[in-house]
Amino acid sequence: MAKDMAASTAAPDYSLTGERAHHAVAAGLATAEWYHSDIPRKTMKELMRRSDQPALRDTAIWVALHILFAAGGIALWGSWWAVPFWLAYGVIYGSACDSRWHEAGHGTAFKTSWMNDVVYHIASFQVMRNPIAWRWSHARHHTDTIIVGRDPEIAWMHPINLTLKALAYIGIVEAWTSLKILARQALGKLSDDEKDYVPEAELPKAVFWARVHMAIYIATGATALGMALAGMGWASVIPLLLIGLPRIYGCWHMVMMGLLQHGGLAEDVLDHRLNSRTVYINPVSGWIYWNMQYHIEHHMFPMVPYHALPKLHALIKDDLPPPNTSIADAYREMWGAVMRQRSDPSHYVRKELPPSARPYRDELHQFVPDRSDA
């Protein structure tokens, strides 16, 4: 009896090599066929058409804002007027990088492959992610979205630790964790989970890029230390404000939007309308986030470029649950569900579909531990 109670209250195994991973495969949840809204083939080809122009425009603005805010922060160093510049620089560096990493990683931001690669590597560095390991991690995330034991990018794991979720908005814990992962990878040590989704032939590349990232961080720290030893006082912090620290203090927008993607929604289902969330947000946040607020649409059709997602949404919204009307509205919904999930992990938000929508592909594969030896 005691053994049964312990099994029922134990934290789920979210690793990619444990019991839940075997269950996902046995239950037909791994690399499964997902629900998709119907779109005519010709229309889909048009939506998937890639172009360099939107991303060139947005990337030019992104680079220019880095330069503008950094220059203002340096020029006004020593006065309070520098603070707004560094705060803005932090968001452009520590939050906008996430959506750029994401879209360039999909290869859809630009039509020209090398442009995707350049932005992908720069943004991966800024968000402190190994560009090789995370490319394959994200591919798995799309193949097995929020499938326990398969998806390496599940943000809301049970039991939910609200303290760590709150700390995520200021980035200290996650940045330190990411730095330790990069250091481990730079030493040639890949975890069992990483080896599960990164092809063996790609592992040396993952080690190489981890070493490149760590070399840059070490050089930045050495520069700051050298400036301090040269008697430059607080100005020695500037190299760290340019590289590294913005991932901590500027990540709040990335976290604010990222937690909404799947928070409070279903695990182990094969319908993105049940495990992903679309939210209407303001244009500034939409630019920072590169339209990932259309998250159901993105997961259904990940090869549609970010700039075409509003059009995709308009085409299929009658087959989707109503979007949340604002960031605040989405947080009210998500936090209500999250608080219930702390005592009832099986709970999730199940939004009502419009009459025009096809029914949910409602395949919730609840995991029941094997207790045959109890």
Automatic annotation (TrEMBL):
GO terms for molecular function: sphingolipid delta-4 desaturase activity. This is Fatty acid desaturase. Residues 79-326 form the Fatty acid desaturase domain. It comes from the Bacteria. One of its GO terms (biological process) is ceramide biosynthetic process. Keywords: Membrane, Transmembrane, Transmembrane helix. Pfam families: FA_desaturase. One of its GO terms (cellular component) is membrane. The keyword Transmembrane helix applies. The keyword Nucleotide-binding does not apply. The chain crosses the membrane at residues 59-83, 214-245. PANTHER family: SPHINGOLIPID DELTA 4 DESATURASE/C-4 HYDROXYLASE PROTEIN DES2 (PTHR12879), SPHINGOLIPID DELTA(4)-DESATURASE DES1 (PTHR12879:SF8).
